[in-house]
Specification:
Rossmann fold, 3-stranded antiparallel sheet
């Protein structure tokens, strides 16, 4: 899922105290000078130190100068989360807030006016307007946050000191000094030479991935196939060229269900641009959709875990790393949309980032408070970056974190999988002695399967198992379903420090 960061040598931490320029305000007063921003190497050094110490990075732990510098490196785009002064427990109330009411509108407009006034003060010759600061984008009408340009560290400091501001964060900062790759990213290739040991065949000529048997998924199908349960996939979309996720989705033994495809991700930076649409041009979302609910149909393709479940797929990102402002907003919007859908019970997110994003977290709170069971990938990287631990949003208490392990015992994580105390479940999805042989799923087109691994595959597989379980009693709550999954896990009632409750026995889960 999560492409690793190949850390290059980090430059020594250097805080530059010199000033770039001094402005004179329209009142004739000399304003504070704008300091030089910190180097990306210095910012990254701090981030990595925090990750080593705390296993999670939040911008609130950083200094004003560092936060502003990261905002500056990210095209000045910041996120502001707000609330009326004195409002409390917002995480638990996110789904109940009506930000169109005067109390919330007034706070938002006051913050916009404040940033506008301060920006005009520091940059009187730049013809700053509210529309420019908001980049022409419409202001959020569901969640209490918005994006705005912040051009001076004093503005960050003042905002952080206000009781009506929940957070001020960079929206567009990326660690460009690192190289990324993943065994389950955007490189999807059909495999025409799959060993016969990596699948079994069942009617009507579909391939069951080898690892499904280690979870007792085929046995569970005699009890449940996920009927009438909606699984929402928030990822890179689904391929329009894969008929198993289109015209053939409800074919074979998978009739009587539907797939709905949407797009919340905007790839363009033009303010008037609309979401790109539902089509996957990466491949990752198509693979995850195949694992969750590929149909049990003819043609020789691989079958999904819940082959009678409904699939609601959102293209919310361009790739598997949620690190740009457009991706964070796309994921947030998809979470709100999924939260508001009565046909969605489960959300699967095989995406994430090393940075905690409060914008995305607001969406998580919203969907969680609506009763959705949210699965998130623990992270996929090279084994020597294992100290990175579980990534965001899998490290949130509102999500169920999943990672992959190799087949057999003792338990060993897959060669690219993160583990840690936040992991709840694991899925065997990699051969013990051959890292290239992972699970099987749909490719971008055709019936020839592709290999897929990492914590991404483990997450989508677990989301499918949850659909099987929920279909046996649709009236049960999220907590009841999660408890059934725990009770069917190999380590429960114990809990391992790296592998959570262990491997789910799907057959046991659907019958108990």
């Amino acid at each position: 899922m999560f492409r690793n960061y190949l850390i290059l040598p980090v430059l020594a931490l250097l805080l530059v105290a010199s000033c770039s320029r001094t402005q004179i305000s329209s009142e004739g007063d000399i304003t504070l000078a704008t300091p030089e921003r910190m180097s990306k190497a210095a910012i990254n050094e701090f981030v990595l130190q925090q990750l080593q110490q705390k296993q999670v990075f939040k911008w609130e732990t950083a200094s004003v100068d560092l936060v502003w510098s990261a905002i500056s490196w990210g095209n000045d785009i910041a996120a502001i989360g707000y609330q009326p002064a004195g409002f409390s427990n917002i995480e638990d109330k996110m789904h109940e807030i009506d930000i169109t009411t005067p109390a919330w509108r007034n706070v938002r407009q006051d913050l916009i006016d404040f940033v506008l006034h301060e920006t005009q003060k520091y940059f009187p010759n730049d013809n700053i307007t509210e529309e420019k600061l908001l980049m022409g984008h419409p202001v959020e009408e569901v969640l209490p946050n918005f994006n705005i340009l912040i051009k001076h560290p004093a503005i960050v400091e003042a905002l952080r000191n206000r009781t009506d501001v929940r957070y001020v964060e960079p929206m567009n900062y990326t660690m460009e000094e690192v190289a990324d790759r993943s065994d389950s990213g955007c490189d999807v290739t059909p495999n025409y030479n799959i060993p016969s040991a990596d699948y079994t065949t069942t009617s009507p000529a579909v391939k069951i991935p080898w690892n499904f048997h280690l979870l007792n998924i085929p046995t569970a199908w005699s009890t449940s196939q996920g009927n009438n349960i909606g699984v929402c996939l928030i990822d890179t979309g689904t391929s329009p060229n894969q008929p198993k996720l289109g015209s053939q989705f409800a074919s074979g033994q998978s009739t009587g269900r539907y797939i709905s495809r949407y797009g919340t991700y905007v790839s363009s930076w033009w303010w008037w641009a609309s979401p790109d649409g539902p089509d996957d041009d990466c491949g990752h979302g198509t693979q995850m959709a195949g694992l969750i609910s590929a149909p049990r149909a003819s043609g020789g393709s691989s079958v999904g875990v819940a082959y009678k479940a409904d699939l609601i797929a959102y293209r919310a990102t361009g790739d598997v790393i949620v690190n740009s402002s457009n991706e964070k907003n796309g994921v947030k919007d998809a979470l709100v949309a999924a939260g508001n859908r009565s046909d969605v019970k489960i959300i699967s997110m095989s995406i994430g980032d090393v940075f905690y994003s409060s914008t995305v977290a607001d969406g998580i709170f919203y969907a969680y408070n609506k009763g959705k069971l949210i699965f998130a990938a623990a992270g996929t990287s090279l084994s020597w970056t294992s100290w990175w631990g579980v990534i965001f949003p899998a490290n949130m208490s509102q999500t169920v974190a999943v990672t992959g392990v190799k087949e057999g015992f003792p338990l060993v994580r897959c060669n690219t999988c993160h583990d840690g105390s936040e992991v709840d479940f694991i899925v065997p999805m990699q051969r013990r002695n051959d890292d290239s042989r992972t699970s099987l799923t749909l490719a971008m087109s055709g019936d020839v399967p592709a290999y897929v691994g990492g914590s991404s595959a483990a997450t989508a597989t677990t989301a499918g198992i949850a659909a099987l379980v929920w279909a046996t009693n649709p009236g049960q709550s999220r907590t009841q379903i999660l408890n059934r999954l725990k009770n069917a896990a190999s380590i429960y009632p114990g809990r391992d420090g790296n592998f959570g409750w262990g491997i789910i026995d799907a057959q046991y889960a659907v019958t108990h």
